[in-house]
Amino acid sequence: MTYRVEPITREQHLAYIASRPSASHMQVPSWGGVKPDWRAESLGWFDAQGRLVGAGLVLYRPVPRLKRYLAYLPEGPVIDWSAPDLEEWLSPLLAHLKAQGAFSVKMGPPVVVRRWDADAVKAAIADPAARRLRDVEATAYEPRAFDIADRLRRLGWQQAEAEGEDGFAAGQPRYCFQVPLAGRSLDEVHRSLNQQWRRNIKKAEKAGVKVVRGGFDDLPAFYTLYVETAERDRFIPRPLAYFQRMWQALAAEDPDRMRLYLAHHDGEVLSAATMLIVGEHVWYSYGASTSRKREVQPNNAIQWRMLSDAHRLGASVYDLRGITDTLEDSDHLLGLLRFKVGTGGQAVEYLGEWDYPLNRVLHKALDFYMAHR
């Protein structure tokens, strides 16, 4: 079948996303408003009968002094990735992007490759011989993912993530940690938490930790903790304006697209986190906490409230986002992996991000710049 790719309206894009069980929060039209340095475009795939059968949010990043762009589809596009005619889906996309002045295309197929349950991850962390999650026997494999990867290579796409990275790619994370919720009661989810998590949740309750929903005006309180977290965990924080823009852009599309939670104790905010919702998929997006009063366990309390709310919303998965692929004690991100494993969920490997050079000279120049910036 031949598909036609062309721009669609925000309303068409949203209607298509709403018809799917889930899609990445980076593939809804409002995500373009979160990224003002990029030009956003909603694209649709139409079949021979003129039906809208796929959609994608494209972000165009201009190259200084050149009217050329990097075209990026984060965690997308939302198409039938298992279709046998994958070339018929991707060729018209590349043709459209090239006509728009793109010299390179980056996309992140939302395709799962492997899963490791919590016991497998815990065993890997405890095994001194295990250095990377990717080298550990998975609990479940998705055979179609390997076929999709082979077809992408044959079509000229290049896997973007280099070997030796910790699983946090330059774009979106290849390894995530998720708690399946579909078909499970909240009691079953609670029983799957490890003993330490259950103990910490009870400890927070006894200490009087209260988790509440916040709003736009509470973002500065979140941000104060976020800056402290960035200093402690050694990452560069985004500006407050980024989170304010995210709230305004997402809320304008759907008032419940983004939520803010704050954990209070004796009048002090100890922990805060943002949550994103698209269909049946709920993400823990950004977290922040202070080093003070850690003994009252605000982080476990806030995550349990968010997990519980995701379950009440009818979510099929609660996604704690990126984890490290490195299992060595020297990696400062291992503590975050241990924390997430305590939820009793599963580590998930995606297909990762893929590049297609429409202009090889400019694409190579971009690779050189990214490697040396």
TrEMBL record:
* Pfam families membership: FemAB
Classification via InterPro entries: Acyl_CoA_acyltransferase, FEMABX, PG_Glycine_Bridge_Synth
The protein's UniProt keywords, in alphabetical order, are:
Acyltransferase, Cell shape, Cell wall biogenesis/degradation, Peptidoglycan synthesis, Transferase
Question: Could you tell me which Gene3D superfamilies the record lists for this protein?
Answer: 3.40.630.30
UniProt xrefs under SUPFAM superfamilies: Acyl-CoA N-acyltransferases (Nat)
> Known PANTHER family for this protein?
LIPID II:GLYCINE GLYCYLTRANSFERASE
Similarity comment text for this entry: Belongs to the FemABX family.
By what name is this protein known?
Aminoacyltransferase
Record organism: Streptomyces macrolidinus
